[in-house]
Amino acid sequence: MTNLSKSVVIGTAGHIDHGKTTLVRALTGIDTDRLPEEKRRGITIDLGFASFETQAPDGSPLRISFVDVPGHSLFVRNMLAGAGCVPAVMLVVAANEGIMPQTVEHLAICELLGISQGMTVITKADAVSDSQLLDVTQSIERFLQGTFLGKDHAPVLPMSATTGEGTDAVRAELAKLAVRIHRGSSDALLRMPLDRSFVMKGFGTVVTGTLMSGTMHIGQTLHLEPGGRTVRVRGLQSHGLPQQSVEPGSRVAANLSGIDANEIHRGQTLVSPKTLSPVDTIDAEVHLLQGAPALKHRANIHFHAFTSETMASIFLYGYEAVQPGTVRLMRIKLAEPIVLVPGDRFVLRQPSPAGTIGGGRVLDTHPEARQRKAATVAWLDQLTTACPAQQISLRVARRKTMGIALDALSAETGLTVDAIRGYAGPALQCGELLAVSENLLLSRENFLTAASAIMTFLGAGIAVKSSVLRSRTALGPEVFDYVLSSQVREKKFRLCGEMVSVHSVDDEFLSADTERLAAVASALREAGLAAPSVMELARKLNLDEAEMRRLVTLLQRDKTIVRMGDDNLFIHSEALNQLSARITLLRGKLMDVAGFKQLTGLSRKYAIPLLEYLDRQRITRNQGDQRLIL
């Protein structure tokens, strides 16, 4: 198995017969036209693939792969299937023709797809005089001004595939471009849109695509969506070389078991089981191109994302038509489901006359069906400029008092659960978000709403059974229990057995112990994890040991404090909750006693019982001299 230090995928773009395929052949030695009709007609119809090995500017090995796309206007849908998965583009313009209609459309498509890296090659440089080459170069540079391929961002290089002139300069610039390309994020769930499927003799079903995110390895079980088919990875190749595993941004050929090649089609996506599902309704931010016709409410258009294509209907917020050159929020209903996540880019084309009219980015793949339009627009407006951490908070908050599970949030955002924990960490620490359980998040605002809902069913002096109260408030069991226990700890509610009542000075359950209980609880809260012993606490509050033990027992029964191993050490539950949330952020790592002491600043006297508590709570698992954080 071979692993290169870096491999990148670059797409071609440009008008028909401007020499894209010939250019790729000159750079790689591979003819990407594989279909008999392509050979007969001399034009590219479907996607082609080729690659070559070179060195990065720092001397490290580098493999550059090309997705060669058709330039004919009739095959733009195939061009979109190739351009949708590449991080950079090589725009090709023939010296003897200059800028042509598909040059314009292909560049617009690249910008709509959010491609921000690339270069421009002027082919057939040997077919014109030096003065003509200078004129066409200047014309191309003017055309590219203000785009990601503008003169200040990317070079414009002449080349002749016939004479070989300029080939070395193009290869060198491709190597520089490859270094600038950012690989897929490790925060995202595994996803590979498929562009081909075929049978290889001796191997069986093979699919190809660009791995957008995640890591794929031999022996892995995956799902094929739409369809929900379970497949297993028998073998892998990346850029023509056998691999044990492949990283994001690689061209991948995967040998699959559990499915026949004729059951797979372009537009399907390989994902990890129980993560991403195809969706048929999205909220999006759409940019309509200058020169495009106005886009009306309920218009039917072609929707292209990655290797997928389907018809779709536009539903505008506000109903007034979208004017050319403007940006609008809208809901898009797809005729066929596609695997999409927030941030994905797409292109819109009108059916007749066929042409690209705009595109944009996905904002939400799980829009709320019964939400008022004004509230939805306000929420989407916030989402358009929010950073990932803010997006997490917005998504938790819109789930109201139900909260949202981490695995559901992962499917909604396309991020791994670990990435979500990382982004949510600061909000959890400051109390903007609350960890109701290990897997459920709730916003502080909705926590207060839930507490208010409980309060409305509790009158002064009235006690209600907790099960009845939960039914009346319609809160989920986890949220109800969390809010109730929190309010009991804060002395706003009183829980006696199964009966809940409002905590007040006139409460029949209050006694002369109230002030002393509050003093003990306050002292332990202030002490945090380094809590004093029962005897030390008794001396500090000027109480005898027997009375202190009685008070501690009452607080322990109320779950305000938790006993650590023996009868002498008790720690306030708030400090333990904060510790648990802090440790959970390190999930998957190993930690020994010394590391725990360094993390918390505690001595061994406290570290050992706290680690044993974390073991009991299944936040850590004892593995010899170390703990695995679960």
Task: Report on the architecture of this protein.
The protein is of the alpha+beta class and 630 residues long. The two termini are 33 Å apart. The protein folds into 5 domains: 6-180, P-loop containing nucleotide triphosphate hydrolases (Rossmann fold), CATH 3.40.50; 191-271, Translation factors (Elongation Factor Tu (Ef-tu), domain 3, Beta Barrel); 279-373, Beta Barrel (Elongation Factor Tu (Ef-tu), domain 3); 386-483, Orthogonal Bundle (Arc Repressor Mutant, subunit A); 514-629, Arc Repressor Mutant, subunit A (Orthogonal Bundle). The protein is built from 19 helices and 32 strands.
SSE topology:
Elements (H helix, E strand, L loop, with lengths): L5 E9 L5 H9 L7 H6 L6 E8 L5 E8 L7 H8 L4 E7 L6 H12 L4 E7 L6 H15 L11 E3 L8 H14 L10 E10 L3 E7 L5 E2 L3 E5 L3 E10 L2 E3 L1 E2 L4 E7 L11 E3 L7 E10 L11 E6 L2 E9 L10 E12 L6 E6 L4 E10 L8 H13 L2 H10 L6 E2 H8 L3 H14 L2 E3 L4 E4 H13 L6 E3 H8 L3 H13 L3 E4 L2 E4 L11 H14 L6 H8 L3 H13 L3 E3 L6 E3 H12 L5 E3 H8 L3 H13 L3 E4 L2 E4 L1
Parallel strand pairs: 1-3, 1-4, 4-5, 5-6
Antiparallel strand pairs: 2-3, 7-8, 7-15, 8-14, 9-13, 10-11, 10-15, 11-12, 11-14, 16-19, 16-21, 17-18, 17-20, 18-19, 20-21, 22-24, 23-24, 25-27, 26-27, 28-29, 30-32, 31-32
